[in-house]
Structures are given as C-alpha cells and as structure tokens.
Write a structure and sequence with these properties.
Elements (H helix, E strand, L loop, with lengths): L2 E19 L2 E15 L4 E6 L10 H15 L7 H11 L4 H19 L3 H4 L8 E2 L2 E3 L4 H14 L4 E4 L4 H15 L5 E4 L6 H10 L5 E5 L7 H10 L4 E3 L6 H10 L4 E4 L1 H4 L2 H13 L4 E3 L6 H13 L3 E4 L12 E3 L2 E2 L4 E3 L8 E3 L1 H4 L4 E3 L1
Parallel strand pairs: 5-6, 6-7, 7-8, 8-9, 9-10, 10-11, 11-12
Antiparallel strand pairs: 1-2, 1-17, 2-3, 4-15, 13-16, 14-15
Helix pairs in contact: 1-2, 5-6, 7-8, 9-11
Length: 367
C-alpha cells in the first residue's frame, strides 16, 4: 500500500465563550486536520490542536510544516507506522502537535485496513465506562463557583478547576466552589505552571481540607527537581502534565520520583504511538495516568476514547474540550450522552469524519 495524496486542512471552531488559564486566554479553537489517502480507496484522518504557550506550535506554522511532512511521506507505505514516524522526526525536530495529527491518521488508516475499531487494534475491549470531568476556567471566585454548581447540576461526576494566579485568589476560588457544590463531588485542580515552588507548597497545604483528587503541573514544566520537592511536601497528589510531553520525559520523571501521576495528551506526545510508550513507562513505575485534551473537536476526542478503552492504566478522563465549542464539525465519532458520559463507535478505524460543508470553508492544500 502507498500514500497517494495528503490533505492539510485548517480547522477553526468557535467557542461558547473565551477560556482562560494561567498561561493566557483562548478565543478560538485553531486546529489542524490531516487526511492521508492511500491506494485501494482507504483514507486515514487525524486532528491536532496546537497551543503556542504549551507546545510552542501554532496553526499557521503547523500548516506549513504539514506540507513538508506530507511531501516526505507521499509514495510510502502508511501501514509501516513506526517507519513513517521516524521519517517525520528526521524531517524536522520537535513539532509534536502537528506530527500527532499524522500519527492519528496513520492509526485510523491501519485500523480501517484491519477492519477493526481502533481500540481493538490497540488490544482493548469497549467495556469501560468513560465519564469526563468538566473544567471550570479562571475567573472571579463567584463566577467560578456558579459555573461549578451548573456543572454539578448537569450531572458531571467530577469538577476540574483551573488555578495558578496567586495564593490568595486561588484559595478563595476553591473555598467559594466548595461552598457552592458541597464536599462530596470530587474536584481536581490545574495550575498550568502558574506557581513557584514555595507558593505551590503553601497553597496545596492550605487546600488539603477541600477533597482535591490531584493537582496538575503546579510549577514551571522545566523544573523537575523542584516538582519532586513539591510532591514531597504536598498533601495532594501531583500530576505531571506540561512536564511530560513524551516517553523520555516520562522515564526521567518516573526515575526521579517527581510526581504521582501522568497526564497524557496526544498533542504533547506526538500522538498515539508515543502515548502508548508513556503509559507503559507509567504502568511499569506504578504511576497511574489521565488522558487530557487541548481544544480538539469530537474527532480527536474519539481517538482519545479508543486509547482509554485499550489501556486500563488510564484511570482519569479529562475529555471535555468539545463541550466548550459553539459548533460541532464532526460526523459520527464518540457520542456525548449527558452527565459526563461518552460512548465510543463500533466501526472500523477511529469511527468519525468531518462535515464536508464545514471543511470546505477552511484553508487547505493537497500534497
């Protein structure tokens, strides 16, 4: 089998409202779609969501790099996934996010060729219930508390709260949210690197009474040594997110004992292939994992759901990005059933596509 052509497409999705974290505010989901067309009529589809302040990538740069990558893959065997990923790594260093869209498309194509849903190709069974948390983004304590209560009333089983500004503000946010939603519903927090080491330890100790499951990336991603210090002094488990981009990061953090858990995102890791490696390292080290997202549509979330169905070491699901979108460009794919529950499709491949009418309005090129 050979790759005949590759479509590179910008995918812009309106949000219900701007979403703010400690690193900045997002006003529009500016994603990328890759469609790999092989002979014998098979097409693999992938999506990625570049975040400049996390992965250092943008949609516009990704579009140009995708053309370079596509040129190098054309005419080659799409089923030899490891070889194709090596080709991309030889073509350009880094750029994990745009590479993750190619990775996803290759896995979709392979699963279609095999006639299997992706989760089966990855060795799993569609037997797990997938319930996402729902994220409360940065704002005033009053606004965040009201949003958390709204999500609780909608039936979400867990609330995730963005923090990372100051000790006083962040503690007040959690107090207000707990006062609004009560103490029983689980809550997770994510500082997105917003604290320094001393502040992180102080805040995490102050938040001990508030039933926090874990805290994601409390300090800057590069400071692995101090992440271990935070973990050693925190009463709340620490989850590495921005600091665990690929399997090499996972090995280093696990060796250091720097965190309790890993958060796996395709856009950080380079895709499904490296996500499998991260999860395997975590499992060997006794570290449980979470899957997370950037601003992806339901299509990429479908791929994430297949990964969850195949990997039992993934025990937390932060699969809520499309629920913040004002429009849905996806046909088929994972279906939202309410109260945080997602249901996977049972057809070969990832099991979704993009509405042609939506895509035709977007910038694209064919290599």
């Amino acid at each position: 089998m050979k790759i005949e052509k590759i479509e590179v497409i910008e995918l812009n999705i309106a949000l219900k409202e701007p979403i703010s974290i400690s690193l900045g505010t997002v006003y529009l989901a500016e994603n990328m779609v890759i469609k790999i067309h092989a002979d014998k009529g098979l097409t693999g589809i992938g999506e990625a969501s570049p975040e400049i302040k996390i992965a250092g990538e943008t949609q516009s740069a990704g579009f140009e790099i995708a053309k370079l990558l596509a040129t190098g893959l054309k005419g080659k065997d799409p089923l030899a996934i490891e070889d194709r990923l090596r080709d991309m790594d030889h073509a350009i260093h880094g750029n994990h996010t745009i590479k993750s869209a190619f990775d996803m498309a290759l896995y979709d194509l392979l699963a279609k060729k095999a006639g299997l849903p992706l989760y089966q190709l990855l060795g799993g069974g569609n037997t797990r219930e997938i319930y996402t948390d729902m994220t409360v983004y940065l704002g005033s304590p009053e606004r965040m508390a009201a949003q958390a209560l709204e999500y609780k009333n909608e039936g979400f089983p867990t609330i995730k709260v963005k923090l990372g500004t100051s000790e006083k503000e962040d503690i007040e946010r959690i107090r207000a949210i707990r006062a609004a939603i009560g103490d029983e519903i689980p809550m997770r927090i994510d500082a997105n690197q917003g604290w320094d080491t001393v502040t992180a330890i102080k805040i995490l100790k102050a938040l001990e009474p508030y039933n926090i499951e874990h805290c994601e990336e409390p300090i800057p991603h590069w400071n692995n040594t101090h992440l271990r210090r935070v973990r050693d002094h925190s009463p709340i488990p620490i989850m590495a997110d921005e600091s665990v981009s690929d399997h090499r990061d996972a090995f280093r953090l696990a060796s250091m004992g720097a965190c309790d858990y890993f958060n796996i995102k395709f856009a950080k890791s380079g895709g499904i292939h490296n996500a499998i490696k991260i999860n395997a390292i975590a499992e060997a080290a006794g570290i449980r994992t979470q899957v997370g997202c950037m601003s992806e549509s339901r299509y990429a979330l479908t791929a994430l759901g297949h990964f969850v169905a195949a990997k039992n070491n993934v025990v937390w699901f932060d699969i809520d990005s499309s629920l913040s979108h004002a429009e849905d460009p996806v046909t088929g794919g994972i279906q939202y059933k309410g109260k945080g529950r997602w249901e996977l499709p049972e057809i070969p491949g990832i099991g979704g596509d993009f509405d042609p009418g939506f895509i035709e309005k977007m910038k694209k090129t064919i290599i």
